[in-house]
Amino acid sequence: MLNNRIFSVKRLLASVFAAGCLFLLAGCNLTVTNLTPTALPSNPSRIYTLTTRVTPKGTNIVRESVRASIIIDGQTHPMRKSGLGAEIYEFDYQLPAGRDEIAYYFLVNYNVENNGFTSPREEYTKVLRSKIVGRYVFSLEANRGPVGARISIVGRGFTKDDVVSFDGTPVRTEFESANAIAFYVPSVTTGANYAVTLSGPNGTSPVGTFRVDAGEVNVAPSSLELSTGSSADLTFNLPAPAAVGGQLLDVTTDIPDSVIMPEVVVPAGQTSVTVSVKGGQAGSGSLFLKGYGEGEVVIPVTVR
Fold first, then answer.
1. For the chain, N or C: smaller number of CB within 10 Å?
2. What span, in angstroms and rounded, lies between the C-alpha atoms of 150 and 260?
C-alpha cells in the first residue's frame, strides 16, 4: 500500500508539473509587437495613435479572451481593435501641453485552457518611448541625378539652419520654406549611392538614398588665353535641359588670383550657359569641373 501511495503522489506531481509547463508555454506563445514609430510628427490637436500587434500562437489560448491595454503615466487605457487587421490594437492619446515624448508599455490579458481548466495569463512589453518631432521628411523630389542637379526635399518644420549631408558631409543647401528645402548634388564619385540626412536645431533626420549619375558637358573653347584685365566667354553645353531649379556646375581653379568668373548655373529648361571669364594676375593653370566626362573636365588657362 505504501508503494502504491508513493507512486500515486509521484504521478500527481508529474501531472501538475506538466500542466504548469503547458500554461507557461501558452504564455510564451503570445507575442506583443510595438507598431508605433519612435518619432511621431507633431499635429495641432496633439492626439497620437499608439499601435501594437498581438499574435496568439498557442493552440490552448482562448482567442476571445484576449484584451490589450496601454499603460501611460500609471494609467491603464483599454485599446480598441484596429481596422488595419484582426490582431492590431490602437489607442488615441492626447499629449499634455509642454511635453514632447510619450513613455508607455503594452499589457495583454488572456486565458489559456488545458484539460478543462482555464487560467488567466498576461504578457507585457518593456517601457517604450515615442518622441514628437516638429520636423519630418516626406520625400525626395528625385532619388538620382548628376553632379550639380538641384534636388528638393518636401516635408515639414524645416528651418534656415538645416543642412543636407551626403554620407555625413554637408553639401550646399538652400532653404525654400518650412515645407521645402533643396540641395545641390555635390562633386562626389559618380555611379555610387549616398545616404542623405538633414541636420539642424531639431536634430538629424534620415532623408533617403541618392544615386549620383555620371554627367556629360561640352565646354567651348577648350582652353583660354587672357591678358590681365581682358575677358573671354566660356560656354557650357549639357546634353539635356537642366531640371527645375537649374544645374550648378561647380567649377574650381588652381590659380584663384588669375581667374575671375561668376558661379556657373545652367537655367532650368536650358541646355547651355555662357559666362565671362576675366584675367587677373599673370599665371597659368586650369579650371576643373568634377563629376563630368571621365570624372573631371579640365580647361587650361593662361593669363599673361
1. N
2. 24
